[in-house]
Structures are given as structure tokens and as C-alpha cells.
Amino acid sequence: xxxxxxxxxxxxxxxxxxxxxxxxxxxxxxxxxxxxxxxxxxxxxxxxxxxxxxxxxxxxxxxxxxxxxxxxxxxxxxxxxxxxxxxxxxxxxx
Length: 94
Fold this sequence. Notes:
The chain has helices at about 1-30, 85-94; strands at about 30-35, 70. It folds into 2 domains: about 1-30; about 30-94, no CATH class. It has a two-stranded antiparallel ribbon. The radius of gyration is 21 Å and the shape is elongated. The protein is α+β, with helices and mostly antiparallel strands. The protein has 2 helices and 2 strands.
């Protein structure tokens, strides 16, 4: 009984490892970038540039220039977003 349990556990582990590798490869293929000024209120991904909050979902207004979301690499400008450098300059001017 113990031998059968060990063999089935080993087989399950081997199968799980085989499934994990393609997922990791897929994540690398879908590169992301921070896109500033596109997040709706409460839908930002993390802390903002000005430091008024430090966590996801805490933005108070739509399209705040210092709040950001992760988007697929190369799509930020199409969404009328800004790079981090552009957002810093916009926040500095305000």
C-alpha cells in the first residue's frame, strides 16, 4: 500500500512539474509595462508616484497621472497613457 502511494505521488508530482513549465514560458511572452494616467478610481495596480497611497485599488480619481496599471508591453501609448518619466514631469508641473 505504501509503495503504491509513493509511486502515485511521484507520478502526480512529475505531471505537475511538466504543466508548470509552459505557464512560466507564457508569462515571459506576455511582457507587461507600467502605464500611468489610465487607471480608473479604485483600479490602480500599486502605489502612486506622489506617495499619497501605497497599495492597489486606492486611487481616488479616474485617470490620475500618478496612478498606474500594468498593460501589455507596447499598448500604453495606444491607450493614451504615459511612461513613468512623463508622469513624473506632469505631476511635478501640477
